């Protein structure tokens, strides 16, 4: 009789624990639900998200149906055609080339470079900052001397020199050249936060228990600074759109026969284009402004969602 009672009590305790865990899992929203709820609460950010995703999909898919070499051929009959004509939705430039088609292909090139640059430079900068800040000591000292040396180099001049001496470069080559120099800011930011995190109790407890250093860095410290990483990557993406645009505007970006947002804005160098032929540069300028503002809105929502997720994890 007593044995049956004890067995029944054990089963009831196990069922109670299981039900409690299921209830907690249902009560605790997932990260995806937290992000979605933040977007639903912020209507401008929701609109910005649709603008970014929709526009990127549009230019990436639309560029596949445009013959770029044929598009860049000179058409004297289309010399500075005005917008809203059958063949020229957004007008034509001095070579009779469609501004709308150049905007699609140029946006694809500029956004592709910005995405690639953000992925490469942010990944390298985050890893560099995490390792430098966690190990500290001589490792941190040596890594920071490399950082100081890179910061002393004139970044813009070095990029211009590399672009000049490399024959037949393309968007991939340009992205790799940019990535050599644009990881420093991210690494410095992540290092400073990692130095603070590595002094906290949960890191000390993991070290004492013999947890592998790389697990501590990438499974414990990095998730706890995810909000900082999200904001930095978002702002870096908006900044990297301007990096390619600025160099192409100066004539040191993509080749002249490869359209980009920078080469289109460079049409504003001619005073006549600013006043009379505004359609040759204004659409690209407006696109950059709208994209950067939209990316900023989305980044703020992702930061709030990451903070809420961390607070929920700490509460659990």
Automatic annotation (TrEMBL):
Gene3D superfamilies: MetI-like (1.10.3720.10)
Highest rank taxon of the organism: Bacteria
Pfam families named among the record's database cross-references: BPD_transp_1, OppC_N
Membrane topology: Multi-pass membrane protein
InterPro entries for the chain: BP-dependent_transpt_permease, MetI-like, MetI-like_sf, OppC_N
Swiss-Prot/TrEMBL keywords: Cell membrane, Membrane, Transmembrane, Transmembrane helix, Transport
TM annotation in the entry: 45-66, 111-135, 155-183
CDD domains, per database record: TM_PBP2
Domain ABC transmembrane type-1, chain residue ranges per copy: 107-299
Compartment(s) where it occurs, according to its Swiss-Prot or TrEMBL record: Cell membrane
Family: Belongs to the binding-protein-dependent transport system permease family.
PANTHER family: D,D-DIPEPTIDE TRANSPORT SYSTEM PERMEASE PROTEIN DDPC-RELATED, OLIGOPEPTIDE TRANSPORT SYSTEM PERMEASE PROTEIN APPC
Official protein name in the record: ABC transporter permease
Organism: Levilactobacillus lanxiensis
């Amino acid at each position: 009789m007593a044995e049956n009672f004890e067995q029944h009590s054990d089963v009831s305790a196990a069922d109670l624990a299981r039900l409690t865990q299921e209830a907690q899992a249902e009560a605790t929203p997932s990260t995806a639900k937290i992000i979605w709820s933040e977007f639903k609460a912020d209507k401008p950010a929701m609109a910005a998200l649709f603008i970014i995703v929709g526009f990127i999909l549009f230019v990436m898919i639309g560029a596949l149906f445009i013959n770029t070499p044929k598009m860049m051929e000179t058409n004297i009959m289309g010399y500075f055609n005005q917008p809203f004509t059958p063949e020229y939705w957004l007008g034509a430039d001095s070579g009779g080339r469609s501004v709308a088609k150049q905007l699609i292909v140029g946006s694809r090139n500029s956004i592709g470079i910005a995405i690639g640059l953000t992925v490469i430079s942010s990944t390298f900068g985050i890893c560099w900052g995490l390792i430098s800040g966690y190990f500290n000591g001589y490792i941190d000292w040596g890594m920071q001397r490399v950082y100081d040396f890179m910061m002393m180099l004139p970044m813009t001049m070095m990029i211009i020199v590399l672009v000049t001496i490399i024959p037949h470069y393309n968007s991939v080559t340009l992205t790799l050249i940019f990535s050599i120099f644009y990881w420093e800011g991210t690494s410095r930011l992540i290092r400073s936060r990692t130095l603070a995190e590595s002094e906290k109790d949960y890191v000390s407890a993991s070290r004492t228990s013999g947890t592998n250093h790389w697990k501590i860095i990438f499974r414990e410290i990095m998730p706890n600074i995810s909000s900082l990483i999200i904001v930095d990557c978002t702002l870096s993406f908006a900044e990297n759109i301007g990096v390619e645009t600025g160099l192409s505007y100066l004539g040191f970006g993509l080749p002249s026969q490869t359209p980009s947002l920078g080469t289109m804005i460079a049409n504003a160098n001619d005073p006549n284009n600013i006043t009379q032929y505004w359609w040759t540069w204004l659409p690209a300028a407006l696109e950059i402004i709208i994209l950067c503002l939209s990316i900023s809105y989305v980044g703020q929502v992702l930061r709030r969602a990451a903070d809420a997720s961390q607070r929920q994890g700490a509460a659990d």
